[in-house]
Structures are given as structure tokens and as C-alpha cells.
From TrEMBL:
SUPFAM superfamilies in alphabetical order: Acyl-CoA N-acyltransferases (Nat) (SSF55729), Carbon-nitrogen hydrolase (SSF56317)
Pfam families named in the record: Acetyltransf_1, CN_hydrolase
Species classification: Bacteria, Pseudomonadati, Bacteroidota, Cytophagia, Cytophagales
Species the sequence originates in: Algoriphagus sediminis
Entry-linked PANTHER family: HYDROLASE YHCX, NITRILASE-RELATED
Record-annotated CN hydrolase domain positions: 226-481
Protein name, as recorded: GNAT family N-acetyltransferase
Coiled coil stretches, renumbered: none
N-acetyltransferase domain boundaries: 12-196
Record flagged with keyword Transferase: yes
Listed GO MF terms: acyltransferase activity
Keywords: Acyltransferase, Transferase
Length: 512
């Protein structure tokens, strides 16, 4: 029994083709194509190996070639979408190959009929994709036969046939496989292979896009790994702004020491200064607190530059004599500032302080990705995260202040949801401790965290890092922005890409 099993045991190996493989290759191709015109001559095969040996891939089983994928590199703009097979391959001479080209062009792929159903073709496609990425080529393009079309040529146009294959109402042995391997149809080509009677000389122009392609590779300023530093801040009495900023500088220094790109502070981290105005009505007290905001932002900006870290300065009150707002400042390490207002105020914030919501939202460019800021309650409104995601946000920062665990869990649960549905990272942090003599800010609850999308490229529970609850501490963790690109184009699910925009959309209504 064991001997019989040994005799049929497969030993598959992925490797580059050699000239000595020609007989195996020709034998497979002759069984696939009806005429000798579909089989490469040995001279053509030799030339393809000569001009681009890395692009000629095969799978062998116990030393015998059972499948292969052949390709060249071309400057695709020379040919455009209206080419035929002979034109782009130089009539089989492959003198169209260009080492400086931008596109990997698939000239052929074949699998021995005895090995169909073993998903060997998928291995070849994956190897081609890996080659395309490693060579930093824009895409893979190929002309795909539609051999199943002959049965439907009298009743369906090529376009309708392709649509039905896409919808899995018809199975095409070539096109169905290519669609399953993440290729999309750019257009239908006529007279691509004039002798291909099964396809009625039609072909699909197929493309797989390399999401990692960099047209102008940057040697600096092209960050993929971004380090986040989150401060879970303890509320304590400070006698003045100097005392407050001394504690802020300690934490900025700490996360900067780990070479963090961002430092996130909580909402109303400067609330301890309210103690000075505790004899006043709550609404008066917070307006006096707003008088410190300009100085704090200025000093925070100096810290960002001197410690080389982008600071999201939690949030602070801003009062212009007519309107009280809650604002978060982004203090970049290049010395520039931006701000994001809290749009939704809670019933308590409106009742106690007279706080009002702002009117705008945007994504901010930084030297470490495109970021958004939603202050506390705002993260509980999914429309805002989606609007930011549509502006290609990479990281969403959520400074919050919550007094009870159930209030925290609302923010925390919604933050996780924003990461999954918008395919971005979400960083949240709040404050801990107590402020006995500050009305409406007396108790705190926080558990800082960094969340990711939920897929194979990310932590299994979508939690990048998490602090212990209700302890003053920091989180420092890395996030990989390149994984977001991969998720959006090749994830198990693609929430952004697969929205039914034919049915619904989110629109921002700008106030006059």
C-alpha cells in the first residue's frame, strides 16, 4: 500500500523555466490549442527565456513541467488598449520587451489537463503578482481568451456574455478563473487572436493593479510604519498653566523618546485649571478656562517642534464672546497648526456649559499619513468617519472624556466599528482619576487603545494595543499604513470598495 502511494505522490515545485523544458511545454500547449499556431516554436521559447528569464515561470512535478506562465515587460503606452497579440509580442519575437517598461504583460499560461482542479493555475498567478510587486511594475495586463463564448455567440454579444460570466450565470474556463484571481476586465478586444474560433476571435483585456506601485520611489519622506504614542492622562490639581505644561512636556518627552510620530492627549486634558474658577457658575468657569487655550496651543506647538513629534492636543474650550466651542489642535512638528471642532455636543455639555457644535470636518495631511480627528461623542456618529474615509484617511484620532464605564464603552465600541467599516486605524485615549472640586468633571474612566481593521493582515482581535483601565500610562505602538492599501484592494471583505453607491450615499451639507 505504501509503495503504491509513493508512486503517485506529487512533488510540486515552483521555479523558472529552462530551455530543456521545451518539450514538456510544447506537449501541454499542443493539447490545449487546436492548431500548431498556438504552440511556441523552440526559437521563440529560447528568445523569451533570453530577454526576460525571470518572467518565465513553471511548476514541475517530480521533474516534469506540468504548468507554466510566460510574460514580458512592456511600456504599455506604446500599445494602448487596442492592440492584438502579435503586435504586443512582436509576432513572437518578444523584441517588444522593455526592461524600463511599467507593465508585466502575460503572454501565455497553461496547465496540463491531468492537473486541472488542483489550483495550480492560482499558484502561477500568485507568482506573477509577486514578480510584479518586486519589480515595482504598475500592473499585470493580459489578453484573455473566452473559449466558452462559441456556445452563446448566436444569442449573446461578447459584452453580455462577459457580464453573465461575472455574475456566475455562465462558467468560462478561462475568464471565470481570471476573475477569481482579482483581474478585472478593462474592455473587449476584437481580432486579438484571429484563429481562436472558440472565442470567435474576441478577447478580454484583463488587468491586475499592483497597489504597492510607486511611480517615483522616494528615499525619504515615504513612511509606511507609523508609531503612535497615546497618553492616558491622570486628572490632578495644577496651580497654574506652567504646572500643567510641565506634566504635558513629561509625556511628550516620553513618547518622543520612543521616536513616536504622534502624541495623543485626551479631551479637556486642561480641565484641572477649572478648580481656580470653582466659585463661579459652570458656564462661566469654562469660559474662563478658554482664556488659557491660546497660550497652551502656542506652548504645545513649541513642544511639537522641539521634541519632533506631531501632537494632537486633546481638546480645549474656545470662546469668542458669542459662541463656546470644543476644539482639538493638531500641532505638527514642522511648526504648523490645524484644528478640528467637536460637531456634536452631549445634552449635559449643552445644559451645563452652553457648549455648541462646530460646522466643518476635514482630513489633515501630515508627514506620517492622512489623519482625522473626532472628539469623543463625534465618533458615535458613523457618517463622520465615512466622510473622512472618503477623503483617504489613514488614522483616526479620538480624544475623549468619559465619567462612567458605560459612557466609555459607547466611545470604545464605536471606535472599533469605525476602524472596521472605514478600513483605517483608530487611536483613542481619555483621562483617569478624580477632580473633587471641579463641577461636572469630578470623575473619569478611560482605557486607551489602538484599533485596526479586522482581517488576516491585522491582529486577530483587531486590537493593536490597549492600556489597563484607569491607570495613568502611555501606549506606544506601530501601525503599518501599507496594510490599509492591501486591505482596501485585496481584503477578505472591502467595506469601502463594495458600498452600493447606486443605492445610497452620504452628503455633507455646507452651511451658508
Amino acid at each position: 500500500m505504501s509503495k503504491q502511494w509513493e508512486e503517485i505522490e506529487h512533488r510540486l515545485k515552483l521555479r523558472n523555466l529552462k530551455l530543456s523544458d521545451y518539450n514538456d511545454v510544447a506537449k501541454i500547449m499542443s493539447t490545449i490549442y487546436k492548431s500548431e499556431d498556438g504552440v511556441w516554436t523552440k526559437a521563440e521559447f529560447r528568445n523569451q527565456l533570453r530577454v526576460f528569464p525571470e518572467g518565465q515561470i513553471c511548476i514541475e512535478d517530480n521533474g516534469k513541467v506540468v504548468a507554466g506562465a510566460l510574460s514580458i515587460i512592456v511600456d504599455y503606452d506604446r500599445f494602448g488598449d487596442n492592440h492584438n497579440y502579435d503586435q504586443i509580442t512582436g509576432y513572437g519575437k518578444f523584441d517588444t520587451h522593455d526592461d524600463e517598461g511599467d507593465t508585466l504583460y502575460g503572454t501565455d499560461i497553461f496547465v496540463d489537463k491531468e492537473y486541472r482542479g488542483m489550483r495550480i493555475g492560482r499558484r502561477l498567478y500568485d507568482a506573477r503578482k509577486e514578480l510584479c510587486e518586486n519589480l515595482n511594475l504598475r500592473s499585470i495586463i493580459a489578453g484573455g481568451r473566452i473559449p466558452g463564448y462559441a456556445k452563446y455567440a448566436k444569442t449573446l454579444s461578447p459584452r453580455k456574455y462577459i457580464d453573465q460570466v461575472k455574475n456566475k450565470e455562465i462558467f468560462d474556463p478561462v475568464l471565470s478563473f481570471q476573475l477569481a484571481n482579482e483581474f478585472h476586465v478593462r474592455k473587449v478586444i476584437t481580432k486579438y487572436l484571429p484563429l481562436d474560433t472558440d472565442s470567435r476571435a474576441y478577447a478580454t483585456l484583463l488587468e491586475w493593479i499592483n497597489i504597492y506601485y510607486e511611480k517615483d520611489e522616494k528615499l525619504i519622506g515615504n513612511k509606511s510604519i507609523v508609531r503612535l504614542g497615546l497618553v492616558q492622562w491622570k486628572m490632578r490639581r495644577f496651580s497654574n498653566v506652567d504646572d500643567l505644561m510641565q506634566q504635558v512636556e513629561f509625556f511628550v518627552d516620553t513618547v518622543s523618546g520612543y521616536k513616536s510620530d504622534f502624541c495623543l492627549l485626551p479631551e479637556f486634558f486642561n480641565a484641572p485649571l477649572l478648580a481656580e474658577f470653582n466659585h463661579l457658575d459652570a458656564s462661566e468657569a469654562i469660559r474662563h478656562l478658554a482664556e488659557y487655550s491660546e497660550e497652551i496651543v502656542s506652548r504645545m506647538s513649541e513642544l511639537a517642534v522641539s521634541y519632533n513629534v506631531n501632537i494632537i492636543a486633546g481638546s480645549m474650550p474656545e470662546y469668542d464672546g458669542k459662541k463656546l466651542l470644543n476644539v482639538s489642535y493638531l500641532c505638527r512638528r514642522d511648526g504648523t497648526n490645524s484644528k478640528q471642532y467637536k460637531l456634536h455636543v452631549t445634552p449635559d455639555e449643552a445644559a451645563y456649559w452652553g457648549l455648541q457644535g462646530g460646522n466643518g470636518i476635514k482630513v489633515f495631511d501630515t508627514d506620517s499619513g492622512r489623519i482625522g480627528i473626532l472628539i469623543c461623542y463625534d465618533v458615535e456618529f458613523p457618517e463622520l468617519g465615512r466622510i473622512l474615509a472618503e477623503q483617504e484617511m489613514d488614522i483616526l484620532f479620538v480624544p475623549f472624556w468619559t465619567d462612567t464605564k458605560n459612557a466609555f464603552l459607547r466611545v470604545d465600541t464605536c471606535a472599533k466599528s469605525r476602524a472596521i467599516e472605514n478600513e483605517c486605524y483608530v487611536a483613542i485615549t481619555g483621562s483617569v482619576g478624580n477632580l473633587p472640586k471641579v463641577e461636572n468633571m469630578d470623575i473619569q474612566f478611560s482605557k486607551a487603545a489602538i484599533y485596526s481593521p479586522s482581517d488576516f493582515s491585522f491582529p486577530h482581535d483587531a486590537v493593536v494595543a490597549q492600556a489597563s483601565e484607569n491607570f495613568e500610562t502611555t501606549i506606544v505602538a506601530d501601525v503599518d499604513l501599507s496594510l490599509l492599501t492591501k486591505q482596501r484592494k485585496a481584503g477578505s471583505v472591502r467595506n469601502l470598495e463594495q458600498r452600493r453607491l447606486d443605492l445610497y450615499s452620504i452628503q455633507w451639507k455646507q452651511k451658508n
